[in-house]
């Protein structure tokens, strides 16, 4: 990529994000980061004196802003719960390229990035689960059930991303996003009736003989 005299910071962060997505945190060398952003290594250090960790922090912050705008706030906003869930799945489908783009939450949870970003990762996932649980509670689900379904939804989304990328096939991710709103809003199945245990019959009482 040709070097430019000045590059807006948001463009630099987008270039960093593409590199981390393709190479991972540990594999993102300064050479790769420089080539993708169009900045010389000295220019990268000018913007990010803390080196690769500070670059990754800027990317993580950018992802957090995107998630807040396109996922968390719509889930907690007004509108019917199904519409809010559909807005989330549509945003995720576009952001992850139909399941072919790596999830930065996953990439930053392993290797050398983990010690630096574990707390932020935990907070981001907890915020996502809480926003989903709010939507499901607004749909009438009991709070404990809403929490369990929200946790399961995030687990399934992240898992589908991994499977789709491993297969090079967007199908698993697309199928999950399509059916997820309906499955999340399904009424809980009633608990089976408790089987009645009949008390054993008492033996007949013997008549008392009068003297």
Features:
Tetracycline Repressor, domain 2, 211 residues, 0% strand, mainly alpha
Would you kindly provide a written description of the structure presented here, covering whatever features stand out?
With 211 residues, this protein is mostly helical. It has a domain at 58-185: Orthogonal Bundle (Tetracycline Repressor, domain 2), CATH 1.10.357. It has nine helices and no strands. It has helices at residues 9-27, 30-37, 41-47, 52-76, 81-95, 104-107, 114-138, 143-167, 171-185. 28% of the residues are buried.
Give a quick rundown of the structure:
The protein has 211 residues and is mainly alpha-helical. It contains nine helices and no strands. The mean pLDDT is 89.
What is the share of helical residues? 55-70%
Structural class call reads: mainly alpha
CATH fold topology of the domain at 58-185: Tetracycline Repressor, domain 2
Our estimate of the beta-strand percent is under 5%
| C-alpha termini separation | 117 Å
List the helices and strands in order: HHHHHHHHH
Q: List low-confidence stretches.
A: none
Give me the CATH architecture of the domain at 58-185, please. Answer: Orthogonal Bundle
Would you identify the CATH H-level superfamily of the domain at 58-185?
A: Tetracycline Repressor, domain 2
Main β-sheet, in a few words?
none
Q: Can you count the beta strands? A: 0
């Amino acid at each position: 990529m040709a070097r430019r005299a000045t590059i807006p910071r948001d463009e630099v962060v987008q270039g960093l994000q593409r590199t981390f997505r393709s190479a991972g945190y540990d594999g993102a060398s300064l050479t790769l980061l420089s080539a993708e952003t169009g900045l010389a290594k000295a220019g990268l250090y000018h913007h990010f004196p803390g080196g690769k960790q500070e670059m990754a922090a800027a990317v993580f912050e950018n992802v957090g802003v995107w998630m807040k705008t396109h996922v968390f706030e719509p889930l907690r906003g007004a509108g019917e719960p199904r519409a809010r869930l559909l807005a989330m799945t549509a945003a995720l489908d576009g952001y992850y390229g139909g399941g072919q783009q790596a999830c930065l939450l996953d990439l930053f949870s392993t290797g050398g990035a983990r010690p630096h970003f574990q707390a932020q990762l935990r907070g981001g996932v907890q915020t996502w689960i809480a926003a989903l649980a709010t939507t499901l509670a607004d749909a009438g689900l009991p709070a404990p059930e809403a929490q369990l379904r929200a946790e399961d939804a995030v687990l399934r989304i992240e898992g589908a991303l991994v499977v789709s990328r491993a297969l090079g096939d967007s199908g698993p991710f697309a199928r999950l996003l399509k059916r997820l709103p309906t499955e999340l809003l399904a009424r809980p199945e009633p608990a089976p009736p408790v089987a009645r245990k009949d008390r054993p019959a008492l033996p007949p009482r013997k008549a008392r003989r009068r003297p």
